[in-house]
């Protein structure tokens, strides 16, 4: 579906110069001289490249709709991850780098949403928050309790996060997958 350059919104998938791009940030600009344009920061869904493009209001761009399907993560085999379609039970293997940093939070049996373009996997969306266990936490430094201070801790998946002083090793916490930050203590 063709849309005007000024109708682009963050999260839109665009077909641009033969590739699939996700609009990350947009800025609408109306200079005093000349026509209005939309400054769009885009990320390539295939290879992860980023680019900034100006779209004038008269320009049109192809907006792509991706199909989404529910999958379940099964196991890792070297650099490949195996997922199972929850409807047809078919298995599919994808390279680890398709998930980026989020691969550390992948857990056996985790439900994920896969985005497909023409039946080809483009990206894998993990749940926004996952539960993890602290395996190592630094001691609290005395005298730092006046302001809200955080201390470094290492999760069971090897990821380093900053946690409040009351969190100790062995505590289960909820972590935001995208920002890799502490959210709250797990119940």
The gist of it:
This protein is mainly β.
Q: In terms of topology, how is this protein built?
A:
Elements: E1 2-4, E2 13-16, E3 19-29, E4 37-44, E5 50-56, E6 60-64, E7 67-77, E8 80-85, E9 91-95, E10 111-117, E11 120-125, E12 129-137, E13 151-155, E14 160-163, E15 172-176, E16 181-185
Antiparallel strand pairs: 1-6, 2-3, 2-6, 3-4, 4-5, 7-8, 7-10, 8-9, 10-11, 12-13, 12-15, 13-14, 15-16
What does this structure look like?
By secondary structure, this protein is mostly beta strands. The chain has strands at 2-4, 13-16, 19-29, 37-44, 50-56, 60-64, 67-77, 80-85, 91-95, 111-117, 120-125, 129-137, 151-155, 160-163, 172-176, 181-185. The protein has three domains: 2-64, SH3 type barrels, CATH 2.30.30; 67-125, Beta Barrel (OB fold (Dihydrolipoamide Acetyltransferase, E2P)); 129-185, Nucleic acid-binding proteins (OB fold (Dihydrolipoamide Acetyltransferase, E2P), Beta Barrel). A hairpin with a 2-residue loop joins strand 10 (111-117) and strand 11. It starts with a strand and ends with a strand. The protein is 0% helix and 54% strand. The strands form three sheets. A six-stranded antiparallel beta sheet has the order 1-6-2-3-4-5, with no helix packed on it. Strands 9-8-7-10-11 form a five-stranded antiparallel beta sheet, with no helix packed on it. The chain has a five-stranded antiparallel beta sheet with strand order 14-13-12-15-16, with no helix packed on it. The protein is flat and about 60 Å long. The mean pLDDT is 85. The protein has no helices and 16 strands. Pathway: Protein biosynthesis; polypeptide chain elongation. Keywords: Cytoplasm, Elongation factor, Protein biosynthesis. It holds the Pfam family EFP.
């Amino acid at each position: 579906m063709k849309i005007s350059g000024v109708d682009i919104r963050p999260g839109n998938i665009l077909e641009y110069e033969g590739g699939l791009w996700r609009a990350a940030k947009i800025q609408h600009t109306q200079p005093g001289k000349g026509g209005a344009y939309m400054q769009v920061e885009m990320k390539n869904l295939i290879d992860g490249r980023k680019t900034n493009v100006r779209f004038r209001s008269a320009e049109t761009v192809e907006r792509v709709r991706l199909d989404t399907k529910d999958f379940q993560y099964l196991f890792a085999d070297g650099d490949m991850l195996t997922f199972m379609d929850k409807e047809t039970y078919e298995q599919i293997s994808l390279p680890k780098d398709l998930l980026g940093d989020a691969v550390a939070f992948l857990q056996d049996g985790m439900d994920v949403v896969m985005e497909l373009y023409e039946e080809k996997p483009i990206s894998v969306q993990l749940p926004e928050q996952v539960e993890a266990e602290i395996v190592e936490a630094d001691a609290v430094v005395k005298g730092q309790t006046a302001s809200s201070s955080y201390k470094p801790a290492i999760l069971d998946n090897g990821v380093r996060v900053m946690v409040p002083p009351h969190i100790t090793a062995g505590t289960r916490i909820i972590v935001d997958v995208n920002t890799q930050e502490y959210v709250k203590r797990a119940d």
